[in-house]
Amino acid sequence: MLKTIPKSSVNRRAFQVYKQWEVDNSEHEVVSASIQDGYFDNEIFVTQSGIITHSLYRSLKSKYYNQEATLTNIFGIIDNPANIAAERRYGDTVYVIAIPQNKYGEELKPGSIQLEDLDNDLTYGDDGKGGITSNVPLYNLVSLDLQNEELVIEDNDGEIFTGTMTNYDLETQIATLTFGGDTDAVQITKLDFQTAILQTAIPLDFEGLDIDEQKYGNVFYDDGLLVFTNANEFSNYVLDFRSTKTIYETEVLVSVKAGEFNFSQNPTAVEVKLSGSYDFQTTAVTNSLPAGTKKIKEVLDIKRREFFSGSFDHAISGSWDDYFNSASVDPTGSYLTTYITTIGLYDESGDMVAIAKLPKPIKNLPDYDVNFIVRFDT
Fold first, then answer.
1. What number of CA atoms fall less than 13 Å from residue 35's CA on the CB side?
2. pLDDT of 43
């Protein structure tokens, strides 16, 4: 008993699932690559973990940090393609962590990354847009004139902000900063003139000014890469992230109309008319069965029995028409009918592709439609 299911009754939707991972430097080493690591003309190559780091440095710069890239040839997520110079800053030395695809799946889930830098006691994360941020805000130090108390910084968008810094206490690291006429006491956790870095305990927040924190690097989710371009050197870390996998759910609406699929396949419920048996010549199969003959019985007709009787108590009997004759006085519905226990789905070639088992048999009422929804994931 087969029935064609229309395409309108078959729906397929995709949804993403995620798995939590925790890795560290013992599994995936931090590879540092620098422009000074060697050049091909003098054949002096610096290698780390079997990687020629100068080639790595040049490859990353060419693929991900191409300042001439456009929307058609840019790799990875970027918040503002028009501001690629600020979104993709590339220093002379970068630190790279590569996660294998069998761990990140289709991509690293944006917004799920948290890395503990055990060497510098810093916590990094991603902003969900391909940028690496930290619990310690970072700004580019343009200049600091302690004599005139003038401080000039550059934010991630390349905007220059000029203010004043007074009452700087080296012991507590607290200074009084003024920008745009707004004054605030700020703890400066790092002031490095050599690398032009200014780090503060909390983000700078001055009324009327939008000072964006510098990024510490970039995450390329599709390739499982973390590239630190503006961070301190580190080698010991613990990294938490989520991998991504797309699962497709197929939903099939199987409709059994009134009167359909109402013939039992139980041998006791049908009468089979067979012809006489005859010999059928078989062909020899190598290493299996020898050639010979088999007795074959031909099925001439199969029809439903008009009446039934109990195999345990023959006094119990009835017919398939009992429902029509006594359904109105049979509140328990204990008439003889078929029960649906299994639904098989076949493709266009007639091959079974899925089997759905019902949790309990469903009585198929002869004058009611019954709908079944079959769902399976691939």
1. 6
2. 47
